Amino acid sequence: MTAVAGTVRDALGAATEALAAAGVEGPRLDAEVLLAAATGWERAALIADPGAELEPAAARRFGEAVRRRLRREPVAYIVGRRGFRRLELAVDRRVLVPRPETELLVELAAEVRPRRVLDVGTGSGAIALAVADELAAAEVVATDTSPGALAVAQANAERLGLAGRVRFVPGTLPEGERFDLLLANLPYVAERDWPSLQPEVTQWEPREALLAGPDGLDAYRALFAQPLPAPVVAVELGQGQAPAVAQLVRGAGFEQVETRTDLAGIERVVVGR
Known about the structure:
Helix 8 (147-159) links the parallel strand 4 (139-144) and strand 5 (166-170). The chain has two domains: 8-71; 94-272, Vaccinia Virus protein VP39 (Rossmann fold, 3-Layer(aba) Sandwich), CATH 3.40.50. The strands form two sheets. A seven-stranded mixed beta sheet has the order 5-4-3-6-7-9-8, sandwiched between helices. It has a two-stranded antiparallel ribbon with strand order 1-2. Helices cover 39% and strands 16% of the residues. It is an alpha/beta fold.
């Protein structure tokens, strides 16, 4: 797409058409988000004034952003941020783009109201930082095996003023510590499902944060094979995995097991107590 200074209407129309032709889902929304980032205007302002003229520099920035989206790079990586709960998180290719369904884990924490929380596989820090933001009395520890992910999460904590509320630790389970609640969003994509995923996932997001063996359960088998340092655990999972994960949770000694569905009706979280 060539960057030509024109009106908001022209820019959005051309970008939406190009993105739709490339098979991008939600091309109009993506175009609006990218144009807002390129101009520094709010999306509402763009929609309210479609005849507004674009500055040439903003048009060039928008054209480059659209070219990146045409290569199926996620919008969150292009603009460098993604909203999650009340927070705006910086994200790049070192971490997964936070998903709305992951908010179920934060909602559970709000119900349990734990004093100490462990977030395993924190990635961008979305879960840990949202819990710290919404539960002022909670002490939060977040772990990840990826140094790059921990760097992103720590930077988010500092920018959001939450660095004093969340402690980041390399690895999986901190030694010698106990918690009231363990939350985990570990890799759960089955190798057989990889070819069917969108290119935004397979070409751009960190593979090691997604794939977990032939059936997608290797990471959770490893987690529940060791003594867990909390009386309540909640884990996010993929479609159709709830029965197998619930069995793992019971096998780890959690007698009360329940599942929670996301807005699409998919069993997305298994809780053990």
